[in-house]
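yo

u said u wanted the structure for the complex thing, so here. seqs first:
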Amino acid sequence: MSQPRPGTLHVVATPIGHRDDISARAIETLRRARVIAAEDTRHTRPLLQHLNIDTPLVALHDHNERTAVDGLVERMRGGDDVALVSDAGTPLISDPGFRLVRAARIAGLRVSPVPGPSAVIAALSVAGLPSDRFVFEGFLSAKAGARRSRLAELAGESRTLIFYESSHRIVESLEDMREAFGADREAVVARELTKMFETVLGDPLSALVERVSADPNQQKGEFVVMVAGREAGEDERLSEGLRVFAILKDELPPARAAKLAAAITGAPRKALYGA
Ligand code: SAM
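structre next:
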């Protein structure tokens, strides 16, 4: 008996807010698949109902991915097409799916994208920051210490930096970015993209922290934070800051000297204090 033609794993992007942001090919792929592997079936079901799609759903989330993968690979080997979706945007982009895609590729199965929305690209497309090169950092740590040391590592990065952030930590993260990158570094917060309260705020980090802290509405929803990369001039500001700090520290406590030297030269306070 001949073997069935193996199925394909279709990695399908779904909306990040506006329900109409789904491609015709995504709808067709979800309709034709034998099964849809979804991060949260309760979340995906209303989207399928809205699209009049009755393809069966199975759960594929961070906690069951390891065990669910084998069954899905077996089904594809047996000829079933599988569609992978996450709660919003593109699967695998700060979302589950990596293990399934990897296992399918290792098994020699066809893995094919149905591209569409992703918050990182949507945000960058409206930020007005240099977009030819960028670094996607995903979510920073929820722990203040780990978050701050990661930001300190990124302080010298010259490409535009992009972070995902939740409403719980938006103010703290912006404050930590101001400390790590300096008050003058330009940044953009893109909130609730494609939704009713979409806002895109751009300012130097010091002003941005104030705007977001002062307005509780600007702390609600989903956020992408983008920070301009370090410019060549920042090296000069830092060395000027270090020079002023060296003078002040003989007269003042180090924290006070760092604060003043940062205010005078525009160099990041943290970098001065660290020095
Ligand atoms: N897979 C998704 C993608 O392709 O963008 C990302 C999933 S991740 C779990 C969710 C995070 O993405 C949110 O916390 C937020 O940082 C960002 N995000 C998702 N939708 C967004 C939106 N409409 N506006 C702003 N940020 C959004």
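The chain has three domains: 8-117, 120-230, 233-274. The beta strands are 8-12, 35-38, 57-59, 82-85, 110-114, 134-139, 160-165, 186-191, 199-204, 223-227.
cya
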